[in-house]
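Regression test attached.
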Amino acid sequence: MATNNNVIERERLVIKFAGDSGDGMQLTGTQFTDTSALLGNDLATFPDFPSEIRAPQGTIAGVSGYQVHIGHANIYTSGDKADVLVALNPAALAYNLKHCKPGATIIVDRDAFTEKAFKKAKIDSNPLEDGTLEHYNVIAPPVTTQCREVLRDSGVDSKTIDKTRNQFIAGILFYLFNRDPQLGIDFLAKKFAKKPKLVELNTLILKAGYTYAENVEAIHSTYLINPNIEKKGKFRNITGNQATAWGLMAASEKSGLNFFLGSYPITPATDILMELAKHKELGVKTFQAEDEIAGINSAIGASYAGLMAATSTSGPGLSLKSEAVGLAFITELPLVIVNVMRGGPSTGLPTKTEQTDLMQALWGRNGEAPIPIIAASSPADCFNYAFMAEKIAIEHMTPVILLTDSYLGNGSGLWKIPNMEDLPTITPRFAKANEPYEPYARDPETLARTWAKPGTPGAEHRVGGLEKSDVHGAVSHDPINHEKMTALRKEKVMRIANSYPAQEVFGKEEADLLVVSWGSSKGAAYSAFKNLEEEGKSVAFTNFNFIFPLPKETPDIFKRYKEIVVCELNDGQFVKYLRGEYPEFNYLQVNKMQAQPFMVSELTEKFNEILEAK
Amino acid sequence: MATNNNVIERERLVIKFAGDSGDGMQLTGTQFTDTSALLGNDLATFPDFPSEIRAPQGTIAGVSGYQVHIGHANIYTSGDKADVLVALNPAALAYNLKHCKPGATIIVDRDAFTEKAFKKAKIDSNPLEDGTLEHYNVIAPPVTTQCREVLRDSGVDSKTIDKTRNQFIAGILFYLFNRDPQLGIDFLAKKFAKKPKLVELNTLILKAGYTYAENVEAIHSTYLINPNIEKKGKFRNITGNQATAWGLMAASEKSGLNFFLGSYPITPATDILMELAKHKELGVKTFQAEDEIAGINSAIGASYAGLMAATSTSGPGLSLKSEAVGLAFITELPLVIVNVMRGGPSTGLPTKTEQTDLMQALWGRNGEAPIPIIAASSPADCFNYAFMAEKIAIEHMTPVILLTDSYLGNGSGLWKIPNMEDLPTITPRFAKANEPYEPYARDPETLARTWAKPGTPGAEHRVGGLEKSDVHGAVSHDPINHEKMTALRKEKVMRIANSYPAQEVFGKEEADLLVVSWGSSKGAAYSAFKNLEEEGKSVAFTNFNFIFPLPKETPDIFKRYKEIVVCELNDGQFVKYLRGEYPEFNYLQVNKMQAQPFMVSELTEKFNEILEAK
Amino acid sequence: MTDIKNIQKYTRKDFVSDQEVKWCAGCGDYSILSAVQNALPELETEKEKFVFVSGIGCSSRFPYYVDTFGFHGIHGRAAAIASGVKSANPRLNVWIMSGDGDSMAIGGNHFIHVLRRNMNVNYVLFNNQIYGLTKGQYSPTTPLGQVTKTSPYGTIEHPFKPGELAMGAEGTFYARGTDNNPKQMKEIFIEANKHQGTSLVEILQNCVIFNNNTHHEITDKTTRDDNQIYLKAGEKMIFGKEKNKGLVLDGLKLKVVTIGEDGYTLDDILVHDPSMEDPTMAFLLARMSLPEYPVAVGVLRAVVAPVYDQLMESQIEEVKSISKIKNMTDLMNSGHTFVL
Amino acid sequence: MTDIKNIQKYTRKDFVSDQEVKWCAGCGDYSILSAVQNALPELETEKEKFVFVSGIGCSSRFPYYVDTFGFHGIHGRAAAIASGVKSANPRLNVWIMSGDGDSMAIGGNHFIHVLRRNMNVNYVLFNNQIYGLTKGQYSPTTPLGQVTKTSPYGTIEHPFKPGELAMGAEGTFYARGTDNNPKQMKEIFIEANKHQGTSLVEILQNCVIFNNNTHHEITDKTTRDDNQIYLKAGEKMIFGKEKNKGLVLDGLKLKVVTIGEDGYTLDDILVHDPSMEDPTMAFLLARMSLPEYPVAVGVLRAVVAPVYDQLMESQIEEVKSISKIKNMTDLMNSGHTFVL
Ligand SMILES: Cc1ncc(C[n+]2csc(CCOP(=O)(O)OP(=O)(O)O)c2C)c(N)n1
Ligand SMILES: Cc1ncc(C[n+]2csc(CCOP(=O)(O)OP(=O)(O)O)c2C)c(N)n1
Ligand code: SF4
Ligand code: SF4
Ligand SMILES: [Mg+2]
Ligand SMILES: [Mg+2]
């Protein structure tokens, strides 16, 4: 372990890895992340792809990144600006410099800073020499040369050698963070378990990087991030998309129903389909449909057949599904529609994040068709909300829309592995064989109708998209019946709020400012609130995960605060919705339409402005 | 002409024709309507189909109806309950009696009241004899017998003879309304111009009916409805769907652009496609697509190619189009999306009317994509608003949603034929050949971009669903550019409100109650307001046709009234939208979810309740 | 697979629901309904295992009238819904009932994909060459040039032939019947049900109101012997009132010959083999149309091929049998975990 | 139709846009782009009359790179957008550029309908048998059993053959080329452009990243002479390194023979005639696959048939010429009007 005179303890640090897609930045990022977790740090990560198409190497458009935020403190976002930047070529440096803190540590491969590379990156002079990096702490070893030197006699070609460059940097980082390099080597051994040669080469390079760092004078001080002591138990690092998939699967196990996903690939939701497709060992059925419409309709069919069913998509796909969402609603069949939001409108910015599908989720279908909407707030809690969405769908016999987004779906964080026994029960109410069955008879408490699986003798019945008569379910054009059914369907959904957990409010009971966020804005908004609270400001914070129906205590909470500010990554959809629901309050709003997550710093600033303006 | 001692002058009257679909009620209704128009009455009509499928003859489910509201006074709705009911079989009577005023005149064919018919209609005893009709003025000639008698020697079979029954009734009606039967005969001569035999038979029967009425003692008094003197000029009776089609065609002629419709049939919007398909003589291109998605995408293609383009559909079809609406929005191409609303959710009540697609129109697509929304208010003004929708689309380079509904689309009213010269100009701004062209350069006033038709040399450019850089239109993932483009697209749409006509307010400048309606609720809401005004109540009225953006003076109007009540055929969508936009006002609401238009009486009652509760 | 002895003996009546049938008098849909209701008791399947799925259209009202499980879906999506039902529970007996517009206009994509996947369902296509429910617009099977409500000057669209499109989509079963031949329809439905995979049955159906007599030349009792050929496996391809006409192969074309004329004898006539894996013969037979050829009815193609829902089940069973992960607890605790 | 003498002489460069091409190094799309850019100058059409329409996918980025009018649409809808462009203005030269997922998964319905209608457009199908843009899920053309990101245990879906499906949809033109044969691609594009109607050109395209070498056996330079047969109108169907193999008809099947062996001579070998109205031969040729047959490239089918956009125009002209209604004023004042 490094013993450096100058060890700085830090609460939290942001490290950004950037390079071409072939540079192994994703791998190095994961290695760093896993090691941090092993050492007990809390963490959150977020990959940053330039666009769906792989752009030419060495260009700005081709830069792909991976950001990790680690902390002794609890971590709620993947971090604002970077404390440490790893940039494997000039384009990666040029693109990311504006996302670094002043004085940040910058680690580059000096060998990659050639005239040819500058041209590709469209920069005029060498940033290592032209003063660009004057105010940064630059570590610029000749990584390529070093790697080729170390592996000169290894018998592998230089292309293969160059692919180990990232491990030289990893070695430097292990030193810089006062970490035992053996942890990194263990990671490699696991990762490349089937390719011992790769393990050998990369291990040599990692060690070389570490040694280099020990010797070089550029490293004046190293960082120490102590373990997070609030988190105890068994954890894993999980992305939001994986957590969503697992939450659905856990709900399936809990309910005793097999799971079916009908889906069509679309960025950034595809991972959910891919994750679920892996788990045939748990009986998961994935149907990769010909389009989004077939995706949801097949899921409706599976739900009719008595399985726990879901469909997953992103904005444009949700548009295509909207007609069928109405069908699921009027047939009152359980179905979870996962929508991983991305930058819109239309194809928009498909690899970027936004919260712009809220109104679509609320209203995007014909007729009066109110459907419960739930939004997750962190990669890890996607598990819980996916689970909850299924529980509500099944127990209340309704489609449910679960909103996550690119930031949550692709980002990761530490997730405490639950005990299956501790998860809530999920109890489907099926029609029994040879008992009288009325398709639209309802449970008096929830108003849910009874689910009758084909194969149940005596429960033969017909459902469909036409309005049906109360209880009996015959096709009905009777005006009074329509009014009644409309009211019943709505009331059924409104009653879901009866079983919500209490809406959590952080900070003061009464205060000058209540910060409100929903879904994935929570991390940044909460962190900004925390900053203000620490400064002694009169603030409180609440985040909405249950979007429709809203928690009943919402107005009671709102009325305790002088000002309410609603933060969201759109042009003001949630705030407009709140105004429609609770027009008695005045709402301020913070919106960002850059298809990028909020930064804690910008929110802190905004909230301070509001408090000062008072 | 009938000279009856007892002629009652009436301001307005409602006549309902009901029978099996084969009974010619539509024909008799149209004959009566046209004659009324010839005589200068104002009028509105509304057909009432039971369901899309033709149900078995003689059953309640099979009853098809046609209601006409005629007046010396201005007519704004197709009428509440009927003053005169024509019921060609017991089922038609049983179904419609509840829609008749007390004391209404009921005309039936006595011969149709057989045991067999009662069974089909599921009634237990003969309503002509069991007291059911005690409080009505019943005219019950043996129509079938009479017709067979009259045409005994005509050489046609009894099936053909029975099809003339409706003209016997027509004869009675001509007498009852003090009308010259020759008008009815002229109508037949025109209608069956190519079938002289039919004209002959029907004329004989009409005359027989008239004679019968002259003699029968059941007719104590006859009605006279004087010409409406406020309406002057050349009129025609037009349905909302036809008026929509013609409004689009008129816009095409005015703009000098050929017209293209990409559409897929769906009730109740199909008539628009069918009407447009007829007008190849005016160069109209109709593309009956394989589905709604192809319908709108072909229209987007046609718009890109430089034609005036539209797509027409109803609720579920709008859902399917929602992804492509976003494409039209981000490519900033002119396109009118006509949505003829029907009962939802899902397939719902496809032949019935509702205003439940407002929120879908506002929000039904991914990302921030604000699109202008216009709603028509009467069958005749569908022409103007369709024209306006195209004008806005073309001059502001944006898709526009035009909302009508089943009530407007299938209903009809008198429409004053405009002079083409009097219609506003429509001026497309096309790129010129061999001049520099930037796809996202904007007109400084409207912010509209310039339209560049393929075929224009030098204007070659690419558009698409991905976010584009300001001015130049290259694919852009730049965060700041995205924020800017989002704001520009919104601002462009908001500026459309600069060119709106003033929002009309009827009644008092300041009052206790402002009645608010939108779209097709106008007729009933206005009539109810008129009732109250005549009673001297402190009321005013305003109707919204421009839904998004709202007229700028809206809050200034609202603030002049103590109470605001919003009437709409849904669960409260417009009112929720108003609350979101102008939360400073308190809104009362009247909603109806019976997939039936408002009755003037029920609104009058509600408004009175509100005024009294104060 | 089903345990036959436990299945009660059903009659037609067991499959008649209490809903009033709401088609126009004289509509061809009635006879299709009754042929299906006649066939069901012979399929040796418990009543509660049947699921009828439809889209929207006159024909799509079908499920309401059969007293089994039924799903009246949305326009064009019957095949997608049915694919979900069948994948979810391969032990159900799933029928898709759909019109030419429902299947080949808005539903065209699901139509070709369900065939390609070879989902084990029975697919009855009611081909009346018109949109009935919406009152008479042309459909993708309406003949070129026909005047309809949306083609007042005649359509300008070349129509699909359903059987041919099915071959193009690699369909494994295709049969054709006519609405005025209930006995034949019943036979075909029974065959369709036997087939493992997507059994497409096109019924030439008459819409009396909006497209009356569109199939008249083919189906009329006075001409049908000459204008139809009923193909049966293993039998000669013979037709005609006198049973003296037959089909022979002439290069890559079929040719109608009269037995005993031009030197053709019974031996020259082709023998029908719907089980040929190569779809070319079925393609030729499906394409036959008047006046050059009689229209083929009966089972044109029925070949053995892998079935989607069965592959899905067996893949799951296989993975289950070899995986060490038996439940969510195993899964969540597998791989990289950290104890803090 | 175009006035040829007024058209300037273009070179490839005229069709290169200023946008940076963003495909992976080694992607087959590059050579397709350059083959198209090479073909365009020879089509005797003013540059501003070209419109390239695409959906979404790696391949669908194509329009950005051609310096003409371009529309990068939404996923699966290129054919629908292009149908609108072409119907609106039949004088434009419209190209659809679309991937196997874009065309045959989400866009399957528009694909079969544009073929059926025979809209006069050129349709280039980039078949890499994978979803490239979304990073490697199986597509409707991925071979059964292939492991991909969404089929970790192998797909259970039987794939489409694009040419066969096109025949099923009554397509009038079908050609196949390979991304590593630019000269041939250029020839095919020129032929496609000549054809009046929907000219479907399938290019076997390599996705180096997610499905590398999927067409390797067919396209590899060392084996392609034996594994491909380049069909040319009026020429014998001969292939092989030694040009000694050929195709003959054996009943309803094609058979590969060696000239000079088993008694087969050059005379026995079939002559290619893409203009045969009957699609059966094209169906057989399109279906040929390894190892039994070589894969057919070149123009497999090109037949004359009515063209949608032309019919639309002529129907309008005809009605215009006979109608008394010349403008809206005439129309609004026709029929039943009332002067009050
Ligand atoms: C999304 C949607 N689009 C359009 C319609 C209207 N629609 C209902 S059925 C139908 C076509 C019916 O034709 P077909 O499938 O041939 O059935 P048929 O009535 O002839 O039996 C149409 C266009 C609809 N209900 N939903
Ligand atoms: C409505 C919608 N659904 C899904 C997607 C995601 N998506 C984009 S391209 C694509 C498939 C691409 O495959 P292909 O068409 O074969 O093109 P390739 O990338 O292989 O050239 C998918 C699933 C999308 N953009 N929009
Ligand atoms: S409209 Fe045609 S298809 Fe529909 S029920 Fe009537 S006859 Fe049958
Ligand atoms: S992912 Fe495949 S298809 Fe897409 S650009 Fe790369 S190599 Fe080409
Ligand atoms: Mg049909
Ligand atoms: Mg592909």
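Expected vs. actual: identical. Residues 199 and 391 of chain A are 45 Å apart (CA to CA).
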